[in-house]
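In this supplementary section we document a worked example of the pipeline. Step one takes a protein sequence of length 263 as its only input; no multiple sequence alignment statistics are reported here. Step two produces a three-dimensional model, which step three serialises into structure tokens for compact storage. The input and output of this example are shown verbatim.
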Amino acid sequence: MIDHGNEPILLRQDHDGIATLTLNRPQARNALSMALMGEMIEALAALARDAAIKVVILAGSGPGFCAGHDLKEIRSQPKREIYQSVFRRCSEMMQAIVSLPKPVIAQVHGIATAAGCQLVASCDLAVASDEARFATPGVNIGLFCSTPMVALSRAVPRKQAMEMLLTGDLIPAARALEIGLVNRVVPGGELPAATLALARQIAGKSPLTVKIGKEAFYRQVEMGLAQAYDYASAVMTQNMMAADAAEGIDAFLAKRPPAWRGE
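The serialised model returned by step three reads:
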């Protein structure tokens, strides 16, 4: 898909089993237009089918990660059905990240606000520049960040989520780390290398095991305690039957590196 300046609005670069998707609307602070969200959904579907890719990094071009929805586009057609389609597509994109059978790491610089903050919260992991800032500022313009709230409230403690949603204040990267919105904060110049190092560490694990673990994590977290243990026990039993589990345990006992087969 082409945007202003004949530039692709979503870039993909693959290297050593790691795919980097870069939001590429820098002049709009990578605002999530309908076209960009559609591109993301298609790219995630392609990545799900690509056996060569083990980990995905999500980044943004220009001065910031993502400023949220494209409000100019949304207000250009003030109709209920347009609003419904925007938020439906956004929800589909966020759920595609969660359901992708490979870890997704947000690489965050500059601002991540509203649906951009939702994007960070939806990713499995997040590494941020020490200059990054986060907010769910919809309350300031009469539009409560209700859909960002879904991801945010699942990523950070309840009172911290409510504070962000009710005040709309920007919080610094250090605070985002403190409340669990991001995993690591690094100097801006080290952000790409730090994110890549984390991605490479995960890419070195059994892809089957990572796939099983990611799916199980999101399923059990919505369950009651007893149901979660029953489910997790069934998952572990099935996991134990995999060739990679046998290889991993045998390699550990023999004090040698495992040779993953992905099965």
